[in-house]
Sequence to fold (218 residues):
Amino acid sequence: IIVSVDTPDNSSRLLRRAMSSGDAVRLYDVVFVLGPPGSGKGTQCARIQENLGFVHLSAGDLLRAERQRAGSEFGELIETHIKNGSIVPVEITCKLLENAMIASGTAAKGFLIDGFPRNQNNLDGWVREMGAKTKVHFVLYLSAELEICVDRCLNRGQGRTDDNVESIQKRITTYNNQTFPIIQHYEQLGLVREIKCGTKTPDQVYAEVAQVFGNAGL
Ligand SMILES: Nc1ncnc2c1ncn2[C@@H]1O[C@H](COP(=O)(O)OP(=O)(O)O)[C@@H](O)[C@H]1O
Ligand SMILES: Nc1ccn([C@H]2C[C@H](O)[C@@H](COP(=O)(O)OP(=O)(O)O)O2)c(=O)n1
Ligand SMILES: [Mg+2]
Fold:
């Protein structure tokens, strides 16, 4: 039985589920990826996508693309938040994520949602809009000393308008005050898988990442 889900387009076929023993709607499989700016989220997500068949969706990348999109009514607002290290209202970010999930087709094993939910507003909006359509398997928490993270952002070399000392400081304050409590929330639910990345190479971190996904049967 395929249960049709009320979506404005053809995306209900994406909401698939194994038909065994009384299961109803197959949900989107999701892993959230959190950690301080520069902890290596994007780096690890690229590897997980390549090796494990997940689709990597970076909230920051989607917001930067929307900022650049001709005719976007949100460009200025997004740029202001990015420079200030504050968090864009969830209505915008969640819609970008959902659109990207729908656009990615049916082949994805699941979605790695990188850099989201970053505050309570993100979490509330996600639960409201996506809670019933998704199963969050766990939160991959890439932890690293903040000094290391700052250095990595400063040396990232992607020409980002927020990879400067002033913006990085603001982003770290936002991380400590708003994002860390979200990680603690998931910790209380037993859903956090922390990898301490500090001085490890990307290969060393990925070896641990692969174990986490293996243990989860993903
Ligand atoms: N384990 C690591 N060791 C050293 N440098 C890393 C490591 N992981 C990522 N980097 C580098 O640090 C910078 C930030 O990584 P990135 O994946 O963009 O982090 P995030 O998405 O968490 O901000 C990039 O230049 C990346 O190449
Ligand atoms: N859920 C999100 C994710 C990112 N943003 C904005 C604010 C963040 O400082 C910037 C950059 O996010 P991004 O995840 O690309 O940054 P890092 O990879 O952690 O360095 O985008 C947001 O407003 N809401
Ligand atoms: Mg990133």
